[in-house]
Amino acid sequence: MTDSSHAEFRIVGGHPALDLVNTVSPRLPAGEPEHDYLASPADLLAWSRRIELVDDADRTAIEGIWGHAPELAEKALRATLEIREATYDVLAPRADGAVGAVVVTDGAASDTAFQGERSAFERLMLRWSAAAARSMLIPDTDREQGIAELLVGTSPAQLVPDRLVVAAVDLVRTVDLRQLKACPVDEGGCGWLFLDRSRNGSRRWCAMEDCGTRVKIRRLGERRRATAVPAF
Hints:
Elements: H1 16-21, E1 24-25, E2 35-36, H2 41-50, H3 56-68, H4 70-91, H5 117-133, E3 136-139, E4 148-151, H6 159-174, E5 180-182, E6 193-195, H7 208-227
Antiparallel strand pairs: 1-2, 3-4, 5-6
Helix pairs in contact: 3-4, 4-5, 4-6, 5-6
């Protein structure tokens, strides 16, 4: 997935936290990506609206704060990128098809396979704690389920990273590892993470019309070259 246009940017993760992880391409455990879709606070806000993390009223409030205090915009961007990388570090080793994915035996993996995991969890926990401190529990007796609503993002300046880290922690707590997959880099994919909710669990690519098609075209070209009759 290399198109830098927000209009064409594919949302394929199946969860906001995975969509966040997928804002670099290709997505690899180490090395600089060819493209980072969150290169500026403006990119972050446009992407947040694109995935419906914020609505128009939220965006207006955020633009007002960030416009008057650019340092707060940069702070929100840095927090978001930290959440993104910590989420990737926690989930990628468990994703089927990911580079460096671990093989879990008897429900546990070796300490070596999870190097850096503790640090990633700590980063998420610190960001989540800060987000929780800026959240509110609002009574709502008209709800069909529960009697209160948790309002995350009461501070416009940090609304985006606050909502993202809450989403990330929710995913880490509840993810079905049988569904967690990575677009296979070793087969020409981009490394993006996604939840495979297909009926038979056979999804392999971030998007068939993107990486899947590109790999098919490349393989077709390789087969044709391999079977071509040399000219004399």
